[in-house]
TrEMBL record, chain A:
This is ABC transporter ATP-binding protein. It comes from Acidisoma cellulosilyticum. Belongs to the ABC transporter superfamily. Residues 11-261, 291-536 form the ABC transporter domain. GO terms for molecular function: ATP binding; ATP hydrolysis activity. InterPro entries: AAA+_ATPase, ABC_transp_ATP-bind, ABC_transporter-like_ATP-bd, ABC_transporter-like_CS, P-loop_NTPase. SUPFAM superfamilies: P-loop containing nucleoside triphosphate hydrolases (SSF52540).
Automatic annotation (TrEMBL), chain B:
PROSITE patterns: ABC_TM1. Keywords: Cell membrane, Membrane, Peptide transport, Protein transport, Transmembrane, Transmembrane helix, Transport. It comes from Acidisoma cellulosilyticum. The chain crosses the membrane at residues 74-97, 109-127, 133-152, 191-214, 234-260. It is found in: Cell membrane. GO terms for biological process: peptide transport; protein transport; transmembrane transport. It is a multi-pass membrane protein. Residues 70-260 form the ABC transmembrane type-1 domain. Belongs to the binding-protein-dependent transport system permease family. This is ABC transporter permease. One of its GO terms (cellular component) is plasma membrane.
Length: 562, 274
């Protein structure tokens, strides 16, 4: 990299090494990170949990937590190394020249202050102007980041806003000082796919218009493919490769990148999947159906004299033996509530749930208990669904202890068998949940659900919050288990890719109602309902195309340092 | 456990506890005099070689009385708190798990007990029941039941909502198995920490009740009573009668407060390995 290019770069990082812990035996978190960020460039940084992405963002802002420190190398922003800056200069830098958009916008906003005030305060710190002037600029900007009725929204408190709206507020806060660089650290994590594309479209479009450079930190290769000019792949605190996205997608240079792309693109061929059972609602005798749901309703009282919230509104469907049905929809569509009603973790308000011919919607708990061994659930968040004080062997064996009452030797044999089934080593039987990775915890959850050899399993968001490669492994595992055990499964998810690879039939839910129901292929290829179309359009396939999102004003790839 | 004892707070607390246990077990061997024999010829003697901590207004040896008093003070406090724990924890578990009208009634009863200043209620109850040492223990137990029950109930209320409870229900667990196998072990930590802190508080209360004359009576060796018997002499420059039992109270309370704090660290499940 020649020194002449330096003047071009908005941000230059050279051989950056960051360490935590005692200086005698430091824990190196980042080592030898070097890259340049060109003016008006969008650089994606992708990597799995623990790769050091967030620490990098913190180092760039000079905000390393605890005893973290830069032990080597330099960060140069707009031609000036941050190490040479005074504390005051650094403060002006943060929020003024370089600003951060973090994950979980609602937690980043002060809950007791109006959001407009919080934005205008940032402006007034960096550029002296009157309150009135700052407020006016805030309203203008809120309008530009797509907030309807900005005057009123600016006077709202954070809890009055939706997640997507709060994220826009954070974006406005980052843009208000016209910074040269924006760091977006997993800025859309936890948002629904449709909201995610809206927020990212907006951020990238604004950045292109204003000539701002952006570092997009993410673990979603779809986001990289659609919004970034160049991509840096991080692993274990190092940059594995750095090149234009187009080349990266076509020809990754390292084996690690290849495996990441492979895992993210994994789309099963049709033959891969179970032969669809005779299927479709009209045919099929009642005895072929393991589950029949008729007019299920569930409301929640929110108190305060307000009318109850209708979470599930007259939902009817049925499930054949050996069938996999996916329930898709955004957050708040009622899909998890339906799953919990089916297993009677929540009592339904009305409707019939017939499991293998018996109506369980109103069945007494003692009568229901023997049926529980035949219907199980894999819970959404793996860690919190495991008792933190129990060892893995006891966690897996709990259903056996409660329902099958097997002798000790048999119990141990079954635990080993189940661990093998979910592809975990046997020595983990003695571990506690907090000693496991998220993927391992998920597998334990699956092993628990399969312990009693159930006929029907509800998988609640089995792939969310997992890294790309772990996600692919879990999907493979579920598919293999279903083939071996002939399970009937209800798949609750918003990850459309996993639906494609696992489900025979799909139900699309919106606000507690079924908007579309049918064969997976048909719905994905020819969605009839406008809501389904919106959902599908929000997907970001990992492919290079010239019609990328928000092409507006997109600059040609600046092949800096290439 | 070993690394835990390396912590200064834990080591100091454990050492103090050991000291008290030795005093309780070997009081007969350690005490140079009988704790209850008056000696009219040697009253209010300052600390000297024959009476290391001096004598009181009856001529009784203060060191011997402090050693013997450990038995009374500690045993009363520990019995009272243990009783309160044994009743309060299951009660808290039940009223936390089943929130209904009976639970609400129990909670209001706790409000009633706790709305009185502890000293006033303690005095009233002891004078109704009679100034017996075990009545003091009973009164303390009554005062501490709501403390434990409330702590456990609060934990249960939040644990009840956790997904692993739903997961257990899915696995076919009954209410009883959920309560005792899942909720109770996870709800115990604050109660166990409170256990140790409460013993310290009970020591202070026992001594306090005796000090104001609502606890045990002379000549029983008891720290609070000893402080009170020396209080009138303080103005005459006789400081040793009150000071030494006072130090004993401070050290005993400190010991259990320290152990309680350190217990919290020891009981964190994330500290456990393999």
């Amino acid at each position: 990299m020649s020194p002449e290019t330096k003047t071009q770069a908005a941000l230059e990082v050279l051989d950056l090494t960051v360490a935590f812990g005692p200086s005698a035996s430091p824990h190196i978190v980042l080592s030898g990170i070097s890259f340049q960020l060109g003016k008006n460039e969008i650089l994606g940084i992708v990597g799995e949990t623990g790769a050091g992405k967030s620490v990098l963002a913190q180092a760039l802002l000079g905000l390393l937590p605890g005893d973290g420190r830069i032990t080597q190398g330099s960060v140069t922003i707009a031609g000036k190394p941050i190490a040479a800056m005074s504390e005051g200069e650094r403060r002006r830098l943060r929020g003024g020249t370089i600003s951060l958009i973090g994950t979980n916008a609602k937690a980043l906003l002060d809950p007791v202050e109006r959001v407009g005030k919080q934005i205008s305060r940032v402006l007034r710190i960096h550029r002296p102007c009157s309150r009135g002037q700052a407020w006016k600029e805030t309203i203008d900007l809120l309008d530009k980041v797509g907030i309807v009725d900005p005057e009123r929204r600016a006077r709202a408190y954070p809890h009055e806003l939706s997640g997507g709206m709060a994220q826009r507020i954070i974006i406005a806060m980052a843009l208000i000082t016209h910074p040269a660089i924006i760091l977006a650290d997993d800025a859309t994590l936890g948002l629904d796919a449709t909201v995610q594309v809206q927020v990212l479209d907006l951020l990238v479009e604004r950045a292109r218009q204003l000539g701002v450079s952006v570092v997009l930190i993410t673990h979603d290769l779809g986001i990289i493919a659609h919004y970034c000019d160049r991509v840096a792949v991080m692993r274990d605190g190092k940059i594995e490769e750095l090149q234009p996205v187009e080349h990266f997608l076509a020809q990754p240079q390292t084996a690690y990148s290849t495996s990441l792309l492979g895992a993210a693109r994994a789309k099963p061929t049709r033959g891969d999947r179970l032969a669809a059972p005779v299927a479709s609602a009209e045919t099929g005798m009642d005895k072929d159906r393991i589950l029949v749901v008729d007019n299920l309703c569930k409301t929640f009282d929110i108190g305060g004299g307000q009318p109850p919230v209708i979470a599930v509104d007259r939902v009817s469907f049925s499930l054949e033996r050996g069938e996999t049905l996916a329930l898709v929809g955004e957050s708040g569509s009622g899909k998890t509530t339906i799953g919990q009603c089916l297993l009677r973790l929540l009592p339904p308000n009305s409707g019939v749930i017939r499991f293998d011919g018996q109506d369980i919607a109103t069945m007494e708990e003692p009568k229901l208990r023997p049926l529980r061994r035949r219907m199980q659930m894999v819970f959404q968040e793996p860690y919190v669904a495991l008792n933190p004080r129990w060892r893995v062997s006891d966690l897996i064996a709990e259903p056996l202890d409660l329902l099958d009452r097997v002798p000790q030797t048999e119990r141990r044999r079954r635990v080993d068998e189940l661990l093998e089934m979910v592809q975990l080593p046997q020595h983990l039987a003695r571990a506690y949940p907090h000693e496991l990775t998220a993927g391992e915890q998920k597998r334990i959850g699956i092993a628990r659900a399969l312990a009693t050899k159930p006929d029907f399993v509800v998988f609640d968001e089995p792939t969310t919050a997992l890294d790309i490669r772990v996600r692919a492994q879990i999907i493979d595992l579920i598919r293999a288990l279903q083939q071996d055990m002939g399970l009937s499964a209800l798949f609750i998810t918003h990850d459309l890719n996993s639906v494609r690879s696992l489900a025979h039939n799909v139900i699309v839910l919106n606000r507690g109602r079924i908007v579309e129901l049918g064969l997976t292929e048909e719905i994905f290829e020819a969605p009839k309902d406008p809501y389904t179309r919106t959902l599908l359009a929000a997907e970001l396939p990992i492919e290079w195309s010239d019609t990328r999102r928000s092409g507006a004003g997109r600059s040609p790839v600046v092949a800096l340092g290439a | 456990m070993r690394t835990w004892l390396m912590r200064p707070g834990a080591a100091f607390g454990a050492a103090l506890l050991l000291l008290q246990v030795i005093a309780i077990v070997f009081a007969g061997l350690l005490a140079p005099y009988s704790p209850t024999t008056a000696d009219p010829l040697h009253t209010l003697m300052p600390p000297s070689a024959s009476h290391l901590l001096g004598t009181d207004v009856y001529g009784m040896d203060i060191l011997s009385r402090i050693i013997y008093a450990t038995r009374i003070n500690l045993l009363v406090s520990i019995t009272a708190v243990a009783g309160a724990f044994a009743i309060g924890v299951p009660l808290g578990l039940i009223i936390g798990f089943y929130s209904g009208i009976p639970s609400a009634i129990v909670m209001r009863l706790f409000d009633f007990i706790q709305s009185f200043p502890v000293f006033v209620l303690g005095m009233a109850l002891v004078s109704v029941l009679g100034q017996e040492i075990w009545n003091v223990a009973l009164v303390l137990a009554i005062l501490f039941v709501p403390v434990f029950a409330r702590l456990v109930r609060a934990e249960v209320l939040s644990l009840r909502q956790r997904p692993f409870i739903s997961a257990a229900r899915c696995s076919g667990a009954t209410d009883r198995s959920i309560m005792f196998r899942h909720i109770l072990p996870n709800a115990m930590t604050p109660a166990l920490v409170q256990l140790s802190i409460s013993v310290g508080m009970a020591i202070l209360l026992t001594a306090g009740l005796s000090f104001i004359g609502a606890g045990v009576r002379m000549p029983t060796p008891e720290w609070g009573l000893m402080v009170s018997s020396g209080a009138q002499q303080l103005i005459l420059g006789v400081w040793w009668v009150s000071l030494f039992p006072g130090i004993a109270i401070v050290l005993a309370v400190l010991c259990f407060a320290l152990l309680g704090d350190e217990l919290r660290i020891l009981l964190d499940p994330r500290r456990r390995h393999r």
